[in-house]
Amino acid sequence: MIARVTVVSKQTQWAKPGELFVVDLAGSENTADSATHDKERNNETKFINTSLMTLKDCIRARALASTSSKHLHIPYRRSPLTLLLRDCFEIAVRRPTKTVVVACVSPLLRDVRHTINTLRYASLLAITPPARVI
């Protein structure tokens, strides 16, 4: 689910509209369940997993780019989700952005693999410095 809120100042015409995106990623779809899904559901699962993989690639690239002196490509154009969130991944932006991540994890032992994976990607975002405003 993606919710977009646009805020416009009525007091000044020079202020640019602000945007807030709330994205619920809900986790990857398990391919082991695909035997019970119809074709439409399998296509939806592929789309979700592709978007999440692209998001992970963008997070990795952004974390590397912030510590590297050479230009690194951030592949945000590969998915509608990451294209929507592209300002979060840019090294230099025209207007400042803030990114907040809430990582939901499970305390159950059976979910430890998913919990570690979630925390790994959330921690990459935690160490990424903010973009330079140009």
Automatic annotation (TrEMBL):
<dbReference type="GO" id="GO:0008017">
    <property type="term" value="F:microtubule binding"/>
</dbReference>
<dbReference type="GO" id="GO:0003777">
    <property type="term" value="F:microtubule motor activity"/>
</dbReference>
<dbReference type="InterPro" id="IPR027417">
    <property type="entry name" value="P-loop_NTPase"/>
</dbReference>
<dbReference type="GO" id="GO:0016887">
    <property type="term" value="F:ATP hydrolysis activity"/>
</dbReference>
<dbReference type="InterPro" id="IPR019821">
    <property type="entry name" value="Kinesin_motor_CS"/>
</dbReference>
<dbReference type="GO" id="GO:0007018">
    <property type="term" value="P:microtubule-based movement"/>
</dbReference>
<dbReference type="InterPro" id="IPR027640">
    <property type="entry name" value="Kinesin-like_fam"/>
</dbReference>
<keyword id="KW-0067">ATP-binding</keyword>
<dbReference type="GO" id="GO:0005871">
    <property type="term" value="C:kinesin complex"/>
</dbReference>
<dbReference type="Pfam" id="PF00225">
    <property type="entry name" value="Kinesin"/>
</dbReference>
<feature type="domain" description="Kinesin motor">
    <location>
        <begin position="1"/>
        <end position="128"/>
    </location>
</feature>
<keyword id="KW-0963">Cytoplasm</keyword>
<dbReference type="GO" id="GO:0005524">
    <property type="term" value="F:ATP binding"/>
</dbReference>
<dbReference type="GO" id="GO:0005874">
    <property type="term" value="C:microtubule"/>
</dbReference>
<protein>
    <submittedName>
        <fullName>Diatom spindle kinesin 1</fullName>
    </submittedName>
</protein>
<comment type="similarity">
    <text>Belongs to the TRAFAC class myosin-kinesin ATPase superfamily. Kinesin family.</text>
</comment>
<dbReference type="InterPro" id="IPR036961">
    <property type="entry name" value="Kinesin_motor_dom_sf"/>
</dbReference>
<dbReference type="InterPro" id="IPR001752">
    <property type="entry name" value="Kinesin_motor_dom"/>
</dbReference>
<keyword id="KW-0206">Cytoskeleton</keyword>
<keyword id="KW-0547">Nucleotide-binding</keyword>
